[in-house]
Amino acid sequence: MNDKGPHKRARYAWSIPGWASEKPCGASGASELWCYTDKPSYEPRDQVQLFVHSTSTVIQMRIYRDGQSPVTVLEQTLEGDFQQETPSDAYAKGCGWSQSAEIAIGDTWKPGFYIIELKAEFGGETVQAEHFFILKAVSQKARAVMLLTTSTLTAYNDWGGANHYRGCPGDDAPSPFLSMQRPIARGFISKPHGAPRNAHHGTPPPGWIPRHEVYEWAHAHGYSRHHADAFWATYERPFTLWAEQHGYALDFLTQWDLHLDPACLDDYSCVVIVGHDEYWSWEMRDAMDAYLERGGNLARFAGNFVWQIRLSADGQVQTCYKDPRLDPVIAIDPQRLTTLWEHPLINRPSGQTMGLAGISGCYNRYGTTTPRSSGGFTVYRPEHWALKGSDLYYGDVFGGAPACIAAFEVDGAEYGFRKGLPFATGEDGAPLDLEIIAMAPAVIGADDHWSGEVPIGAPADEMEELLKISFAPNPPDWVKDKKYGAGMVASFKKGEGTVFNAGSCEWVNGLIHRDPFTEVITKNVLDKLIV
Fold this sequence. Notes:
Layout: E1 3-4, E2 7-8, E3 33-37, E4 41-42, E5 47-54, E6 58-65, E7 71-79, H1 90-93, E8 101-104, E9 112-122, E10 125-135, E11 144-148, H2 150-156, E12 177-179, H3 213-221, H4 236-245, E13 250-254, H5 255-260, E14 270-276, E15 279-281, H6 282-293, E16 297-303, E17 307-311, E18 317-319, H7 351-354, E19 357-364, E20 377-379, E21 397-398, E22 408-412, E23 415-418, E24 421-424, E25 435-443, H8 460-471, E26 484-494, E27 497-501, H9 507-512, H10 516-529
Parallel strand pairs: 4-10, 11-13, 11-14, 14-16, 15-17, 16-27
Antiparallel strand pairs: 1-2, 3-5, 5-8, 6-7, 6-9, 9-10, 12-18, 17-18, 19-22, 20-21, 20-25, 23-24, 25-26, 26-27
């Protein structure tokens, strides 16, 4: 980061000098193996196009349906010359590799989340690569569908050198363009059990200097620095395993499907979203809003609803400038600016769809953001249907340390209290009939107590600058000098449908830790909304 006055600006914890993102190096004798598919989801009897780059001529391929009991559906040896040229800006424009194999989806393959696993031997060393695809249900559909957070995956995937946060050559700036036609960096699809998460689970002592286990572990073991920020291995997979254990049947779709086919939700009574759910397109929101208005339900065990993105006509390139002043559509179609949904030119507040918004909550238990909070949610409406049978009372805290379900990035609404109960004020676009069930303190970012010498996870000055840019020159009162917020568990009616929003990326960690209150609430929500 650049110097700021007499002190350095706070450094991001993931900004470790010399820590390169994955990409082919072109060196003689390098042990390389990566792959990607032509799209993220398929229907029965489709052909999966597989693109591979490797310095090996013999590759073992295994395809399996992931879940509580993974099922292998295909094992095959691939042989040939798999070395491919990769452009330096593959992160933005795609790899452009030649097709290496075509995989016919078998008639017996069940709908679900599939992993393509490749292995190659290099002088006794085994190198592994993986990719994923969804097999969609077209008949005998489940009543509920998990909508995978593929837009957030794309935003954090730094394979090829850059993502929406960092990595562009020269200045390590974010790339506004990211292609889906590239491999996925290591750690988003699978990683060892017990890998660190984006929340610290102990109570720091006085004089604490923060450490960042997520990044230290990733650097030491060769994983993406962003491995814990998004997708299957960290979020959706643990929830899927818990759901299968408790008898809940889920189909799968991606946000890519929702963007291109707004009717894809029609046969489902409930959409389930889990984990880090940060990026949506206008078309995705249109499809979700229409689904809810006509009676569909949303069970969102996720957090950080913040950014509008755009997808190219074929859905293969994701655009997000974040700084609206740089987005060329500002003079053509300003509602499609890739910035905060609350930006006055977009004027489509997050709360209109989700009830809650990322910028009304932000961070809890992430590095130095509320580092000694309970890590859980404090109950304010114990009589709410989602808490039935939980034995939770007003003022109780559930999901606290070590589970810390109210952690990393959380969503909230602007609120006030009447007779000891929180109510949405509506000034940020949240619905006035929002029922705030439980809350946790949150801050917009971490204050730097070390004059830039200690890396921190989410510097507050970055968010402050973003809010100034997005709402200049006349920010609304609820944004002015904003420093604090709240993560919330809430629900509301949208048209004929019901939205339950757990408002936290780390809700699933309560299921991993088998926190009894988190489990009861999750069951109540699914049982009510899957009809």
